[in-house]
Design goal:
This protein is of the alpha+beta class and about 230 residues long. The chain has eight helices and six strands.
Length: about 230
């Protein structure tokens, strides 16, 4: 562990790319919370990889333009004597290299299409994800998810998926919300009706027996979700 303020700053800065990658993956794909050991290993591994790539690029640049880049050898050997008169210059380079490494980690975290196409050449990666996430996100990119629910009391409700819990554990303590027009059929009724006056219905997973999911290109005009372009932009 670092034993000085400077060492602590360097240590934290070194792990920034790994943290950027971690936050991006967590915001896009629900994942199980790893142990402290695994989480630390992931941060260090990503940080080492991205920092190494950026350092190689820096070394290549220095070999081509040595007069316009810091002298790492002198920085290590002379320390403060070399850096005292070059603090803004060195700070600019450090910030730039850290930004480049973090940008690379960000790209790895969002998994762009070209990266997914490249990784598809290899064996598929197993990712822990709930069934809800797998099914709700399986439709075309610009489609709506229409959900029908058989409830425990025998009733039926259906509507456009508005929100759902991304909790990865398949527990009953989750909810999903559907938007109008909300279709409802009571357990003892032969025909259903549309619930008027309400734009959202929150359903507990504890009350759901079965889910029926389909993907629509557009919703009924009275839907509370708006147009596809409006929904995607938000």
């Amino acid at each position: 562990m670092p034993t000085s303020i400077v060492g602590l700053i360097v240590f934290v800065g070194f792990l920034v790319p790994g943290f950027v990658h971690y936050t991006q993956r967590r915001s896009r794909v629900p994942q199980r919370s790893p142990s402290a050991l695994v989480e630390t290993a992931n941060l260090v591994t990503v940080s080492v990889a991205t920092n190494a790539v950026v350092f190689v690029l820096f070394a290549s640049w220095r070999s081509l333009v040595p007069k316009h880049s810091p002298d790492v050898r002198r920085l290590i050997v002379e320390g403060w004597q070399y850096s005292a008169d070059r603090l803004p210059y060195l700070g600019f380079w450090v910030a730039g290299l850290l930004l480049g490494s973090s940008a690379l980690a960000f790209v790895l975290g969002i998994r762009p299409v070209w990266l997914e196409s490249f990784s598809a050449r290899f064996a598929p990666t197993l990712v822990d994800a709930s069934t809800w996430y797998h099914v709700f996100e399986a439709g075309p990119a610009e489609s709506y998810v229409w959900v029908g629910c058989d409830l425990r009391d025998g009733a039926w409700v259906a509507g456009a998926l508005d929100w759902y819990s991304t909790e990865i554990d398949e527990t009953a303590d989750r909810e999903l919300a559907i938007a109008g027009p909300i279709e409802f059929r009571a357990a003892d009724a032969s025909e259903g009706r549309t619930i008027d006056g309400y734009q959202r219905l929150v359903i507990s997973a504890r009350e759901i027996v079965r889910l029926y999911v389909t993907y629509l290109d557009k919703l009924p005009p009275e839907s509370g979700l708006g147009t596809a372009e409006e929904t995607i932009s938000t």
